[in-house]
Structures are given as structure tokens and as C-alpha cells.
Write a structure and sequence with these properties.
This protein has 230 residues and is α+β, with helices and mostly antiparallel strands. It has two domains: 182 residues, Bira Bifunctional Protein, Domain 2 (BirA Bifunctional Protein, domain 2); 38 residues, no CATH class. It contains four helices and 13 strands. An eight-stranded mixed beta sheet has the order 1-2-3-4-8-7-6-5, with helices on both faces. The chain has a five-stranded antiparallel beta sheet with strand order 12-11-10-9-13, with no helix packed on it. The chain is globular, with a radius of gyration of 17 Å.
Length: 230
Amino acid sequence: MGFTVLANYKLLFFGKIPSTQIYAHDLIERRGAADHTAIVAAAQSAGRGRYRRSWVSHHGNLYVSFIFDAPTRDARCSYAVAVAVAESLQALGVDARIKWPNDIMVGGKKICGILIEYVGDFVVVGIGVNIKSNPTVSAGYKTTRLQRYCSATVMDVLALIMKNLDIWRGSDFANVRSRWMDLAHGLNQIVQYRGMHAQLHGINEQGALILNCDGNDLLVYGDEITLNEK
């Protein structure tokens, strides 16, 4: 394990661990966690995403879990994090877009996943960015990697994300919401939700996703949607 302090973050570096997210949970439970701690791994043997799905974690990509103070839960946190990551890739000249609820897309393909979990008085923000490689999951699940678009390193991406997390987590939600809408993947298009077809209208002031189905607005919290793409 290596240790350094960068841009007001305490960074813990590992060559390979089961999961940065699991390590962050354990650190909190051992009462060894502090605000602005980042656990970074070169590779993971048991990386995971939402609903405990496996996350393929080869060398050359960014795998990081941030620990922030969070005495109260706020569903809007995920929007600030997504905007921060998308803005980081935009700064590298990559047209990154945000797909509800937690994916970052480039050219309609997933390049980054985000996992947000609350533990005690902290929130753990897990971020995985495909930089040198991207997994082959299934024919209908498209992924891509950053090196198709630019030559940024893991540390380049990490530094940008840390900077933008501080900016967007500290921003008024009205600004976060506006920027999220600018970057939303599939806005005003038809999506599938629980077997229904609906139009994606955006998010409201409380952080709910707004879908319109047969003229009626639906407010969605946390559930997944599928964009009808060719």
C-alpha cells in the first residue's frame, strides 16, 4: 500500500485488492475513515457495481472509492458525482454523457460506472473509468475506453475527478440539475421503464427522474431505464 496527500485528499494506493469499495466500508467500520479519503487500486479481484454486479477490473483503468462526510443522506448526491465525472472527461476533449442512474457514456457506449453507498456518517463514492481496456460483456451491452479518444493517464483522470467532485458537490443543486440536463444521455427520447415506453423529460428539484407515459408524468427514484437505441 502507498500513501500520499494530493489536492486536500488522502490517497491510499494498492496494486491489487478485492474491491476499493469494500476496503472503504471496512475502513469506516474500523473507525479509520476520514473525509476526503480516496482508495485507489491498479486492479481489483472482486470489483462490483450496483446490485452487487461484478465489475471487470483489469490493470490500466481507474478504480477509486472516495469517502466523504455525510451525516445525512441526499439522493441528489449522485447527480453531482455524475456531473463531476462527465465534466472531467469533457475537459479531456471527450464528449461524455450521463445515463440514468449511474453510467457515463461516450458515443452511446459505457465508459464509466458510479456506485454510491452510505455507511454510518459517510458516503462512499465508487468510480470505475475504462482507460486502457473495456470489458466485453454481451452483444447488447456496449462499452468503450478513454484511450480511443485521448492519451490521458490514470492520474490525469483521477486529478480531474477530485477537482470536479469538490466543485460540484459544493454547488447549489439548481446548478447541478441544469448541468446534468445539459449532459443527459437520451433526454426527450423514448425509454423503457418497467415494461412501459415513456419519454425521458429530466429530473426535478428533489432529484426524481421525470418520465412521461401516455400523457402522465412519473417520478422515478433509483430504478433503471433502458434507452431505445438502434
